[in-house]
UniProtKB/TrEMBL annotation:
This is ROK family protein. Signal peptide: none annotated. SUPFAM superfamilies: Actin-like ATPase domain, Winged helix' DNA-binding domain. It comes from the Bacteria. Belongs to the ROK (NagC/XylR) family.
């Protein structure tokens, strides 16, 4: 039998519906629907509107998801920048800020600044109920323990529990941890691409990673390492040392960190991939060449994944998307030259709907999927 949480999920998915529709979909009696709606309205999650004009029967009373019932906090940790946001319960960013700090300094240096930054963002929403905190990291994570797991790109973070950093200021508020590309994939699935059940979301920034939606479900893999394609081996990278400690990884010729390093060796004053993107947009021929080459290498690297998964849409996000046309020109060339015609015949390559805010929106989406799940809402109503 459908619970209050199940009824809420129905309302959340539709945005607005009616008591009659809920009765028809769930099979509950009108009395049971009324009781569940009363509990959801008391919890502030659902709003009931005015009666619609009668067409001869019982007048329809619209009920809708109250997206302003509270907020979720979003933390998207990157290698060179961490993005913080306050979002409503629909995942819309209400306020955004950045911490430009190298993640290599370790959690003891970064996480206290993260908590302080969230506190500052909440000054505009002093009475808002905080439902949860979404925290995304590059690389594999242990979702249960709430830590980075065996990630060669996060020195000092491995197996360090991150939830305790929030405990003093945000006690009892759930902190949901996930991989950054997976978080963005959840956001894309629920945004403009809603209805597409097979997506491959490619995050191309300092490093390379992918989020996989197959059959409508996020695929994390047996050990949470699904999508770590940046460390696949390709011929063009043979012998090149990678930051993971191995050699020959795709990232050594296509990752933002490798491009920045090569340009620095040539005398360019660049610190981050974002600097390279600005040069490319400004017309610098070397920066444009390297970004296009990165796209070619990535296209070659993901062609087997396209053959294997046959996604409907390939979404490009991350800092590299700032030079989307240049990057994707190279990517298309190699992808369509290496993947099968059958796998690419209906494939759409698109930019992220969220642009530069994809990471914080994704972290919020990850949190919302947990704290507004039917199970979580049932627990909230019971309290």
């Amino acid at each position: 039998m459908a619970t209050a949480g199940d009824v809420f999920t129905l309302i959340r998915e539709r945005g607005e519906t009616t008591r009659a529709d809920i009765t028809a979909v769930t099979g509950l009696s009108r009395t049971a629907v009324a009781a569940r709606l009363a509990a959801l309205i008391d919890a502030g999650l659902v709003l009931e509107g005015e009666q619609a004009p009668s067409t001869g029967g019982r007048p329809a009373i619209p009920v809708s998801f109250n997206t302003h019932a509270g907020v979720v906090l979003s933390v998207a940790v990157g290698i060179s920048r961490t993005r913080l946001a306050v979002c409503d319960l629909a995942g819309t960013i209400l306020r955004l800020s950045d911490i430009d700090q190298e993640v290599a300094l370790g959690p003891d240096d970064l996480m206290p600044d993260v908590v302080k930054g969230l506190d500052v963002l909440l000054e505009d929403h002093p009475s808002a109920t905080v439902y949860g905190i979404g925290l995304s990291l590059p690389g594999p994570v242990d979702r249960e323990r709430g830590c980075s797991r065996d990630s060669p790109i996060l020195p000092g973070w491995d197996r360090v529990a991150l939830r305790p950093y929030f405990a003093e200021r945000f006690d009892a508020i759930p902190v949901i941890l996930g991989n950054d590309a997976n978080a963005i994939a959840l956001a894309e699935r629920g945004g403009e691409l809603e209805g597409h059940s097979d997506l491959l979301v490619l995050k191309a920034s300092t490093g390379l990673g992918a989020g996989i939606i197959a059959g409508g479900a996020l695929q994390r893999g047996a050990s949470g390492a699904a999508g770590e394609f940046g460390h696949n081996k390709i011929a063009a990278a043979k012998g090149r040392p990678c930051r993971c400690g191995d050699t020959g990884c795709l990232e050594t010729v296509a990752g933002g960190w490798a491009i920045v390093h090569e340009l620095q060796q040539r005398g360019y004053t660049v610190r981050h991939l974002r600097d390279v993107i600005e040069l490319a947009i400004g017309g610098d021929p070397e920066a444009r060449r390297m970004i296009r080459d990165s796209g070619r290498y990535v296209g070659e690297g993901i062609a087997p994944a396209v053959n294997l998964l046959n996604p409907k849409v390939l979404v490009i996000t991350g800092d590299m998307a700032g030079a989307y046309d240049i990057f994707v020109a190279g990517l298309r060339e190699a992808l369509y030259g290496n993947a099968t015609t059958m796998a690419t015949r209906e494939l759409e390559v698109v930019a992220s709907a969220y642009g530069g805010t994809a990471a914080p929106v994704g972290s919020a989406a990850m949190a919302l999927d947990e704290v507004l799940s039917a199970r979580a809402v049932d627990a909230l109503v019971a309290r």
